[in-house]
From TrEMBL:
PANTHER family: MONOOXYGENASE, PUTATIVE (AFU_ORTHOLOGUE AFUA_8G02570)-RELATED. It comes from Kitasatospora cineracea. Gene3D superfamilies: FAD/NAD(P)-binding domain. InterPro entries: FAD-binding_MO, FAD/NAD-bd_sf, Flavin_mOase-like. This is Cation diffusion facilitator CzcD-associated flavoprotein CzcO. The keyword Zinc does not apply. GO terms for molecular function: flavin adenine dinucleotide binding; N,N-dimethylaniline monooxygenase activity; NADP binding.
Length: 496
C-alpha cells in the first residue's frame, strides 16, 4: 500500500495501538492518563479484548507468573490467587479497561494489514480490514504502537509427524481447543513438556482415565504456591493498594534473585530443583530421566506448577511422564523410537507457538519495505530507520507486564518531549553501522530459535541492547532522559 492510498478525508489519530490484550490495554491507559489531549484508538482483529486470556481455552489455562507483577502497576490485584486462572485474569483486564475509560477507544474486528510511512506528511497510512464484513479502510496516524506480542494468534506450531493421517482418534492443539471435547475417562497423550503441557496434564488428569506427558527433552519444573500468604497478609494489614505495592516490590526482588542465582550458580540451582522435584515425586521415581534437562536453569524458562499439581497427579497415578521420541503415529496412538507403543483416545499437541513479530504487520517507509531482520531494536521498543513506530515486548525471564509498563511510560514521555520541542518525527539510527549484533530474543526456547532469522536484532551496547533486567530498565525507561544522540527528531517536512 502506498501513502497515496490514504484518501484526503481518512480519519486521523495521534496514535494507533494495535492489539487489545494486556499490552494494548496498558498502552491505552498510559496514553489516556499521561497524554489526555492525544487522540488514539485501539484496533483489535478479534471480537473481544483480552488477547491470550480470551483466545486460549484449554483446560487449566493460567498464568505462570504471579499476578502481583504480571498485573498492572496502576491496578492492584485483589484476588487471593497469586498464580491465577485465565477467567480471573480476563476479568481483571476488562475491569482495568472499563475503570480507565478504554472501552470506547477499542475497535473490534479491525485487522491491520499494513502501514506505510510518508516523510512528506509525517504520518502513517494504515490499511485495515473489517474481519466481520471484509470491508477495507485506511486510517492515518502520527504514531503506530504495536501491542500484539510476538506469536501468531491464528495458528499454533505442530511439527510434521510421520503417520499422522493413520491415527483414528482426536488430535487437538491447545491454541484451538474445541469447546465440545469430552476427555472424561479416556486415555490422553499430551505431546510436549513446556508451560502449556504442564498445565494441561494435571487439569485433564482430574477426569481422564489416564494422561501421559510425552517429551523429547525434560524441562525444569518447580512447584509454586497458588496463593501467596505474605501477599494476602500485606493486603489485609495495609489495604489492597499499599499491600499490592509492597508485594510487587517483594516479588520483583524475588524474581531477580532466583534468576541471578540460576545464572551465576547453575549447578547449585540444578541440584536444588532436583531435590525439590524428588520430594514431590513417588519414592524411587526416575527423576533424572524425566526432570533433569541437558541445559542449565533459565537457558529456557522454568515451568511453574501451582501447588505442585503435576507432581500430585503423578503421585496419584492419574498421570505419567515418558521421555522418548515419536517414530510414527499409529491407528491407535504413537510408536516411539524405543519400540514402545502408547495408545490414546485423545492426543494433545502441546508443541508450542509460532512466533510472528508485530502480528505479521507489513511496514514500508517512503515506499521501501522494512525487513525486520535488517533492523536493530532501540531500547527494546523502536526499530532503526523506522520513524514514529513503537512496540511492546515484555520480559522472557520475568513477568511480561513489568517491562510493558516501563515501555508505555517511556513512550508517553517521548511524545511529550517531542511536543515540548516542536517535533513531529523521531527515528532511531545507530551511530556505528558496524556495531556487532545478536538476536533480539537471546533465548533458547524452540519457538524463538525457529523464528530468529525473521526478527529484529539487538546491538552490543545501549541504547541498542534489549534489556531483560527490570532494575536497569527502571533507570533507562522511567528515569532516564528520552533525548538521545542516536534518536533523531525533527519537524514535519524536514529531513530526519
Amino acid at each position: 500500500m502506498s501513502p497515496s492510498a490514504a484518501s484526503a478525508d481518512a480519519e486521523h489519530l495521534d496514535v494507533l495501538v494495535v492489539g487489545a490484550g494486556i499490552s494494548g490495554i496498558g498502552a491505552a491507559r498510559y496514553l489516556k492518563t499521561e497524554l489526555p489531549a492525544k487522540s488514539f484508538a485501539v484496533l483489535e482483529a478479534r471480537a473481544a479484548s483480552g488477547g491470550t486470556w480470551d483466545l486460549f481455552r484449554y483446560p487449566g489455562i493460567r498464568s505462570d507468573s504471579d499476578l502481583h507483577t504480571f498485573g498492572y502497576e496502576f491496578k492492584p490485584w485483589r484476588d487471593e490467587q497469586s498464580i491465577a486462572d485465565a477467567p480471573r485474569i480476563l476479568a481483571y483486564l476488562r475491569q482495568a479497561a472499563a475503570e480507565n475509560g478504554i472501552d470506547p477507544h477499542i475497535r473490534y474486528h479491525h485487522k491491520v494489514l499494513g502501514a506505510s510511512w510518508s516523510t512528506a506528511t509525517a504520518r502513517w497510512s494504515v490499511e485495515v480490514e473489517r474481519t466481520d464484513t471484509g470491508e477495507r479502510t485506511v486510517l492515518t496516524c502520527g504514531w503506530l504502537f504495536s501491542a500484539g506480542g510476538y506469536y501468531r494468534y491464528d495458528q499454533g506450531h505442530t511439527p510434521e509427524f510421520a503417520g499422522r493421517e493413520r491415527y483414528t482418534g482426536t488430535v487437538v492443539h491447545p491454541q484451538h481447543w474445541p469447546a465440545d471435547l469430552d476427555h472424561a475417562g479416556k486415555r490422553v497423550l499430551v505431546i510436549g513438556s513446556g508451560a502449556t503441557a504442564v498445565t494441561v496434564v494435571p487439569a485433564m488428569a482430574a477426569t481422564a482415565g489416564h494422561v501421559t506427558m510425552l517429551q523429547r527433552t525434560p524441562t525444569y519444573v518447580m512447584p509454586v504456591s497458588r496463593k501467596d500468604p505474605v501477599a494476602n497478609a500485606l493486603k489485609r494489614l495495609f489495604g489492597p493498594r499499599r499491600g499490592y505495592a509492597l508485594t510487587r516490590r517483594k516479588n520483583i526482588a524475588q524474581q531477580r534473585l532466583v534468576w541471578s542465582f540460576c545464572r551465576r550458580h547453575p549447578q547449585a540451582a540444578r541440584r536444588i530443583i532436583r531435590w525439590v522435584n524428588t520430594r514431590r515425586l513417588p519414592a524411587g521415581y526416575p527423576v533424572d530421566e524425566h526432570f533433569n534437562p541437558p541445559y542449565d536453569p533459565w537457558d529456557q524458562r522454568l515451568c511453574a506448577v501451582p501447588d505442585g499439581d503435576l507432581f500430585a497427579a503423578i503421585r496419584a497415578g492419574r498421570a505419567s511422564v515418558v521421555t522418548d521420541r515419536i517414530e510414527t503415529f499409529t491407528e491407535t496412538g504413537v510408536r516411539l523410537e524405543s519400540g514402545r507403543e502408547l495408545e490414546a483416545d485423545v492426543i494433545v499437541t502441546a508443541t508450542g507457538l509460532n512466533v510472528q513479530a508485530f502480528g505479521g504487520l507489513e511496514l514500508t517507509v517512503d515506499g521501501r519495505e522494512v525487513r525486520l531482520a535488517d533492523t536493530l531494536a532501540y531500547k527494546g521498543m523502536m526499530l532503526s530507520g523506522v520513524p514514529n513506530f513503537a512496540f511492546a515486548i515484555g520480559y522472557t525471564n520475568s513477568s511480561w507486564t513489568l517491562k510493558i509498563g516501563l515501555l508505555c511510560e517511556h513512550f508517553c514521555r517521548l511524545l511529550a518531549h517531542l511536543d515540548a520541542h516542536g517535533h513531529d518525527v523521531c527515528r532511531p539510527e545507530p551511530a556505528d553501522p558496524a556495531m556487532p549484533t545478536r538476536p533480539f530474543l537471546d533465548f533458547g526456547a524452540g519457538y524463538v530459535r525457529r523464528a530468529v532469522d525473521s526478527l529484529p536484532r539487538q546491538g552490543d551496547r545501549m541504547p541498542w541492547l534489549t534489556s531483560m533486567d527490570y532494575r536497569g530498565d527502571v533507570a533507562l525507561l522511567r528515569t532516564g532522559s528520552v533525548a538521545d544522540p542516536e534518536l533523531h527528531c525533527s519537524r514535519a517536512g524536514a529531513v530526519v
